[in-house]
Write a structure and sequence with these properties.
Rossmann fold, 7 strands, globular
């Protein structure tokens, strides 16, 4: 007998939630789901708020557009039993047009009755002339074993045109191994569901409006939330309702009552008390495994609870590790939420948990974490003894942060009792912009405390070199370090520290061949590929490339190193900061403005507490981006703030660079009075440092360049003499970019004086250097005078070959209004037109792969670049060519014989 379906089934169970206009299209995930047309099952599992339902709703729309039949079922807590689940499922099928007639199964149904129901569904699906997709959302509510058995049979026996799409917070108890072996499943898990940075940007722009928050704030939101869609939505709502909270964004996220309520109601409310307390205890840890969890919590079945947390997608994430142990971490917001609950519930227990963690880490040789937790547990003596007992071969840059934290609590008399700790403390403060303290400690009479360990005694010049580095005394660094090259240093950390310090000093001195040869003679073996100090040494070589002006090579080297550094030692590691400063500067010079901004965004360490050259590069890049993307006032405000900060750190060379950049912007604003006042401050710095070596030799060159800018119209001869000082320094120290800039500015002054011969000579030399090095913004940032002169030289064919082609490409970067007059009358060009678009080699490569019908993701894999880089290049190509599609761009490239 056919049993009618219950009347109480409301229609909302069979309709997906409405997708608002301001949503993010999950293009990459939808592309993966595209494979479902060849499979029986798509399984999407993930934590609460990770966008599973929205993703399914988007995929449903795609299926409908493709002409498929679609059924939707949203489950609730009322559908946990077998009969309730089947009632809802059969109703959804009938609404999709399936002519399914069957007896409604009962709780005690027989296997034969279940098989008959499956057969009826299979027959009804086969009768459909098209594919049928059955979407089941919130499957975690299903508890009845019979219901899972029913779904298993449907998966095993369903026809080829029947596709099940299931979303669940937990992995369903289905046997999927056979389907996996047959390639009949598409599985998306929690790790793949968060927004990437581009999707976060799209979501924020769609809901707040483009440009309402800057790149630093956007990156901060993305990092705090780890791309968690629901949390990003909460932040957007807060910013929309209270725009003034932008200034408190970091703290606002942690304290958000909406977020606390969401986590309490959607996550914690469903947990048993034992699991909730277990998770809270683990919140003191940045990462954890079963053994550590047992040691900290005392729970004997810790491994089982961790497995349950993973199975239930309890906002924990697997962490890559070198061993076979399964390591996890909490989503940062969830971890902070748990830690806050723990501190409120059992404040006295927190120290004891940290101490247990410290001893476990120490016993397993994870010394940096042992020190961190011992310090947090106020057990400073144990923290000091951990470092003292540590074998030198285990030292790493991971020590820096916990050591600084420890030093804030450690009495100096304790420090002086532990020789290895004293050595690492001196090195730590020297490397983190506190050289005075390191110098004072080394000057203390300690009865030869640091001579107890011969290796430490031999390595003391490394500390003195680090102090010299912070003072820009690069010649002293060379004098200290070169003798050590012939000394055996078995400690890898100290060996790579020596190489990185000496490489930086060689670059400062313009000895680029020596810097390159240093790493060639001391190559990093594969086993040390991800060693944090080895990465710093390689990043320092990339920095030397940029100093030399080799922008393209510096970009390639630093991009690969940055990716490795982030993966191996974290986004805020020293190696990642050095690489990011190089890459951002290179991206900016190459006119990759969005890439430069994203690279430098939300990296306070770059601007506040890095080495002098890193802070200079990052600060200048940030100021120039602010000038381009915000306003001259924003750029000036930032530079004034940085100038004050760098003065407080006694970084006088950096102060000179900041003042010189302020002069450039003040002249752009036609504020000549303030520009002259600022030049007076630079003159004082120059008089105080008349004859410097190494990095500080830049000071007279920087001052001379600023003076030339101020005097170029009123006293051109004096300006030209100042530019010759700058160029002489650039040539002596091999600073190719600075030499090209000096030549460019000289050319514009000569042109204003109607001295065409010297203008042509200087400009030709500048463009030749630009073509060789890959310079773009060095020219574009000089504005109308440079653009008009360059346009006239191109029109008059004063340049030849590759240099002419590069000059034409540079012109394409200037606004039309700048080059219009210079290009008027050019052969074959309508008076106001620009030159034929010029594509970069990377853009041509991408168009070649577009011609092979590759997706953006496939192109990224083929070229070993990020998906964002592919999209950025395509946008650039479309803008250059004035087209709006991949197809049109490909046709243009074929007509130009750039691709086949």
């Amino acid at each position: 007998m056919n049993t009618p379906f219950p009347k109480h089934l409301v229609s909302t169970k069979f309709s997906p939630p409405r997708i608002g206009a301001k949503h993010v299209l999950r293009a990459d995930l939808l592309a993966q789901l595209q494979r479902v047309q060849y499979c029986r099952l798509a399984l999407v599992t993930g934590s609460a708020g990770y966008g599973k339902t929205t993703l399914l709703a988007q995929w449903r729309q795609a299926c409908l557009k493709a002409g498929a039949e679609v059924a939707w079922l949203s489950l609730t807590g009322e559908d946990k039993s077998y009969i309730d689940f089947c009632s809802a499922l059969f109703a959804a099928m009938q609404r999709a047009g399936m002519a399914v007639e069957m007896d409604l199964p009962l709780e005690n149904t027989s296997a034969a009755a279940m098989d008959a129901s499956i057969a009826a569904i299979v027959e009804a699906a086969i009768d459909l002339p098209k594919d049928l997709y059955i979407f089941i959302d919130d499957y975690q509510y299903v508890e009845a074993p019979l219901a899972h058995r029913f779904m298993q049979k449907l998966l095993d026996h369903g026809p080829g045109n029947l596709h099940l799409v299931i979303a669940s917070r937990v992995t369903p108890p289905l046997s999927l191994s056979r389907l996996r072996m047959m390639d009949q499943t598409v599985e998306l898990e929690s790790a793949g569901l968060p927004f990437d940075l581009a999707e976060t940007r799209t979501f924020v722009d769609e809901n707040l409006g483009p440009g309402k928050i800057n790149a630093d704030e956007l990156t901060l939101i993305h990092e705090l939330t780890s791309g968690w869609p629901s949390c990003i939505q909460l932040i957007v709502i807060m910013l929309k309702n209270r725009p003034e909270t932008r200034a408190m964004l970091r703290d606002l996220v942690w304290r958000s009552s909406d977020l606390q309520t969401y986590l309490s109601e959607e996550v914690m409310a469903h947990l048993p008390a034992e699991l909730a307390e277990f998770a809270e205890a683990l919140s003191i840890l940045r990462r954890f495994n079963a053994s550590l969890a047992h040691a900290v919590t005392g729970v004997e079945h810790a491994a089982e609870l961790l497995q349950r947390m993973e199975d239930e997608n309890l906002l924990i994430i697997r962490v890559d590790s070198d061993d076979r142990t399964a390591w996890y971490r909490f989503h940062p917001l969830f971890g902070e939420f748990l830690a806050t609950r723990l501190a409120r519930r059992e404040p006295a227990a927190v120290c004891e948990l940290h101490r247990r963690a410290s001893r476990w880490y120490a016993g397993h040789g994870l010394l940096a974490e042992a020190v961190r937790h011992a310090s947090a547990g106020e057990d400073v003596e144990f923290a000091a003894s951990v470092i003292e007992r540590a074998a030198p071969a285990t030292w790493s840059l991971e020590y820096l942060s916990p050591t600084l934290h420890l030093l804030e609590r450690l009495p100096e008399e304790t420090l002086f009792r532990h020789q290895r700790l004293l050595f690492i403390a001196c090195l730590t403060v020297a490397l983190t912009t506190r050289p005075a303290k390191a110098k004072a400690w080394l000057a203390q009479p300690q009865d030869n405390a640091l001579s107890t360990y011969p290796e430490i005694a031999r390595s003391l010049p490394l500390i003195h070199a680090a102090i010299a580095f912070q003072h820009d005394d690069t010649q002293h660094m060379i004098d200290l370090l070169e003798p050590l090259l012939n000394e055996p240093i078995e400690n890898p950390f100290l060996q790579y520290l020596l190489i990185s310090e000496l490489c930086a000093a060689y670059g400062a001195a313009g000895r680029y061949a020596d810097a390159k040869r240093l790493l060639d003679r001391h190559p990093v073996p594969p086993a040390d590929r991800d060693n944090d100090m080895a990465l710093v040494a390689q990043a320092t070589r990339a920095s030397s490339m940029l100093l030399e002006g080799n922008v393209r090579e510096a970009q390639r080297e630093s991009a690969a190193l940055l990716e490795r550094s982030v993966h191996a030692v974290g986004r805020y590691s020293i190696s990642a900061n050095v690489c990011a400063s190089v890459l951002a500067d290179a991206w900016y010079e190459l006119d990759r403005i969005d890439d430069a901004r994203e690279t430098i965004a939300n990296r306070r360490g770059l601007l506040q507490s890095s080495g002098p050259d890193v802070m200079i590069r990052a600060s200048l890049c940030r100021a120039r981006l602010d000038l381009l993307q915000e306003s001259p006032e924003a750029a000036l405000a930032f530079l004034e703030q940085q100038t004050a900060h760098l003065r407080s750190m006694r970084q006088i060379r950096a102060v000179a660079h900041m003042l010189a950049e302020q002069i450039k912007i003040l002249l752009l604003k036609r504020d000549h009075a303030r520009a002259r006042d600022t030049l007076g401050l630079l003159d004082e710095i120059e008089q105080a440092h008349p004859a410097e070596q190494g990095y500080r030799a830049e000071i007279p060159a920087v001052v001379a360049l600023a003076r030339a800018r101020v005097l170029c119209h009123d006293q051109p001869e004096e300006a030209l003499r100042a530019l010759q000082v700058t160029r002489s320094h650039a040539v002596e120290f091999g600073r190719g970019r600075l030499a090209a800039l000096a030549d460019l500015l000289s050319a514009t002054i000569f042109a204003e004086q109607k001295n065409d011969s010297d203008a042509r000579f200087c400009l030709s030399r500048a463009v030749e250097a630009a073509q060789h090095l890959g310079l773009v913004r060095t020219f574009v940032d000089e504005g109308a005078a440079a653009g008009k002169l360059l346009a006239r030289m191109v029109r008059e064919r004063k340049l030849e070959g590759a240099v002419l082609q590069y000059a034409s490409m540079l012109l394409d970067k200037f606004p039309d209004s700048v080059v219009r007059d210079g290009l008027a009358g050019a052969p074959g060009r309508g008076g106001a037109s620009k030159l034929q678009p010029q594509l970069t080699q990377r853009e041509v490569e991408i168009l070649g792969l577009v011609a092979q019908a590759m997706s953006n993701k496939r192109i990224a894999l083929a070229l070993n670049i990020t998906l964002e880089t592919v999209k950025w290049n395509l946008r650039n190509i479309f803008a250059k060519l004035g087209v709006s599609s991949r197809y049109d761009a490909m046709i243009w490239a074929r007509k130009q014989d750039l691709i086949k």
